[in-house]
Write a structure and sequence with these properties.
20% of the residues lie in helices and 46% in strands. It is an alpha+beta fold.
Length: 196
């Protein structure tokens, strides 16, 4: 009688353990999260660059990539860290944050009039502020840093840059403008595309 009751208790405990194991939310696999995120980050944003000669001026088309090595979120749950790097969730970024950015760029066919190389990059600091629905529907950013350009002759030039952008659709789509007052190519603008 005691043995039979013990077997029933063990069986019920076993069934409850199996049910509770499969009812728990499984934690995401880090390697899967990072690998899919990394693949999505290779999708570039289309950008247009000023190419101005003595009497002629045109726009050149290129690509831009966003790399954010460090971000500080202003409004987050007290149990979560304010600091993030590289893999930053949109809710942490667009509810209000400050970040360091690195932005590689490539111009198709190079510059016709300015004699600049096809490759350049920008780096600096950017602050993002929510406007509607805690930044999910609308947010804007302002930033500053340095623009690094190289001439075909081999000479390098760095100059200050000012950036402003507007974001929508949970931060996946936006319009971004850069103004480089002392650079050879003074401005660029284009779509901001970011997949999460």
């Amino acid at each position: 009688m005691v043995l039979k009751s013990l077997i029933h208790v063990v069986f019920i405990a076993f069934v409850l353990n199996i049910c509770s194991t499969y009812s728990q939310i499984k934690s995401p696999v880090p390697i899967l999260n990072w690998s899919t995120w990394l693949i999505l980050q290779t999708v570039p944003s289309v950008t247009f660059y000023q190419d101005k000669g003595n009497s002629n001026s045109t726009l050149r088309t290129g690509f831009q990539w966003q790399i954010i090595p460090l971000s500080y979120t202003f409004s987050t749950n007290k149990y979560l860290s304010h600091f993030n790097s590289f893999f930053i969730r949109p809710v942490k970024r667009f509810t209000g944050s400050a970040e360091l950015y690195f932005q590689p760029e490539y111009v198709f066919g190079g510059f016709k009039y300015l004699q600049l190389k096809k490759y350049m990059f920008k780096s600096g600091v950017r602050c993002i502020f929510p406007v509607a629905q805690q930044g999910e529907y609308l947010a804007f950013s302002i930033g500053g840093g340095y623009n690094y350009q190289s001439f075909i002759s081999g000479e390098n030039k760095s100059s200050p840059t000012i950036e402003a952008a507007v974001y929508s659709l949970f931060g996946m789509l936006g319009l971004k403008c850069n103004y480089n007052p002392n650079a050879i190519s003074k401005y660029s603008f284009g779509l901001y595309i970011k997949y999460y």
